[in-house]
Predict the structure.
Amino acid sequence: MAQNLTDKELIHQKLKEYFGFSSFKGNQEAVILNLLAGRDTFVLMPTGGGKSLCYQLPALMMEGVAIIISPLIALMKNQVDAMRTFSDNPGIAHFLNSSLNKNAVQQVREDVLAGKTKLLYFAPESLTKEDNVAFLRKIKISFYAIDEAHCISEWGHDFRPEYRRIRPIINDIGQAPLITLTATATPKVQMDIQKNLGMADATVFKSSFNRPNLYYELRPKNDPDRDIIRFIKQNTGKSGIIYCLSRKKVEELAELLVANGIKALPYHAGMDAQTRADNQDAFLMEGVDVIVATIAFGMGIDKPDVRFVIHYDIPKSLEGYYQETGRAGRDGGEGFCLTFYSYKDIQKLEKFMQGKPVAEQEIGKLLLLETQSYAESSMCRRHSLLHYFGEEYTQENCGSCDNCCHPRPRVDVTQDLVLALKALKDIGDKFKIDHLITLLLGKTTANIKSYGHNKNRYFGAGAEKSEALWSAIVRQGLIMGLIDKNIENYGLISITEAGEAFIAKPKSVKVAEDRDFEEDERAQDVAPAHGGGAADEELFAMLKDLRKKVAKQHDLPPFVIFQDPSLEDMSIQYPITIEEMQNISGVGAGKAKKFGEEFIKLIKAYVEEKDIIRPQDMVVKSVANKAGNKIFIIQSIDRKMDFEDIARAKNLSFDELLSEIEAIVNSGTRLNIQYYLDNYMDEEKVEDIYLYFKEDAESDSLDEAIAELGSDYTEEEIRLVRIKFLCEVGN
């Protein structure tokens, strides 16, 4: 016991001496004592919990050199620089990787052999090189530390095959205690890591994954560029990261932010190493407020005061989402995590998986399904996230996510849950969630038929409930432990003993229906007090009344005058001149001149009466090449160019081209696309769709049009005729 006390006293003394701290955070002390005692150690600690100290302090105290295996060169450099600030000896920490020339490598080896170095960082690829293995056999190794250990698992969000080779190489170099660290690991990933590294007997230290200072919000991906600019301008001077999936989007968005007076830089793996390093340093040194990046950015970037993390695109997995959002508020201060979600992004990510090995596709789809389920759920975000990482969150309302701050109405689903459990028990444990829900809804799909489940007694037993509600019910069953999901078997579900007991003796269960984001894409959610723009509801209602009156005078449907997003923007920007009206989303010069006058008059009177300060710095300026696109498209249509040729010339998909044309038309420019319709569409179809928009449509909603017109008309055909209609009638 006395020895133990001495160790404790010693590590506290060294903590103060080396790092200037007087106390440890969370599990740090227990982890360090375990490693000093020579035991294998497994550390699960969320971003910001102080993982690196768990191996840095023992490395300085133990005899020999600690070998740190880490996935990113930028991360190693960051940590080595940080370690050198704590010591007079510049050789205290080194890295050996592909970025070093021969002389630099020689210097590192000399420092190590001279006993100056206590921490030696490797990328897993460098560790496998024969000359490095031979060199490491010559030195005393205090322990091996494997950072970002989730990279070992195919079920992790950042799988790297070379991580699988670490164990045999360690065996080859020589035995020493092993410490593995990760900020994100589901129970499945944890099992995978321990099995692969042969450390089943390791002591496991698991910190809570709850980050109470983070606010989680998901919004429909309606007009994310505009939303992001508005959000950042309302959080001026705060540090933030925006993640995009593609390099192209990173470049475009960074350019758009700069055009709107926001200090931002891009970061992605396609840039040259020097520019990337400069941009990262500019962000760390507060030369810029915002970095727009692919997920290549941020691993181990120790910037404690990142105040917001925005996901422009939904991430591929919940581990990725958790780790990236975890870069906000590492100092315990405010952290706002905003994600834009559209089901189309899920479909896009599924397409990216095509061509990969089948097993990899199955894993990828399952991880995506978890992300989709999290995004669309109306359950507390914190509850869902922590459950995913095998942790129970007992509070009913976290008070710090969109679903808790703006709850949807809850309904009693006790008997529905009993029904779902009975049906699951009946069909057995060979099926996924979507199969169970399809069975309950009574949909005759090929899969349902092939198992004869269209004749099952529960087929259609839940047909009166929506798919979104059944998703919420089954998810609640998972959270309550009544249903088990077998992650190793690609998400097959089964009833648990607790589920059997629930059937016999049900307790009251209430859930809120999942959100339908496709429906929400027009009705953008209002942000909570943390930030984001909110429309002036009173003015919005007045503008809608005026629109109705103007529409009657012109004998037009109201949406032809101005669409809802335009009115919403007016009730945020308060335009009081024709010039300002032209800058409103979806208005432009043509519409401003034609219909703007009365709206300006109303807004001006309202602003004066309420003494409103107008946010005129909120005008979103477009980037030059966007304007170039617009001019090219208008000129090409004037020359009667084929739409496919226009799209090809500007490297756009047909869907993107239609979106560009819709934006041009919505801002009041008149285009004549009749030549294209004559070539590609049946005249009767054009008349039917045109008539629908002229006489029956209550709004310009595509979903409503598809539902009303039926399956004889494609989405593309409806969009094309809607463009023709808006040009002829509105512009």
In short: The chain has five domains: 2-206, 214-357+366-391, 410-514, 537-618, 624-730.
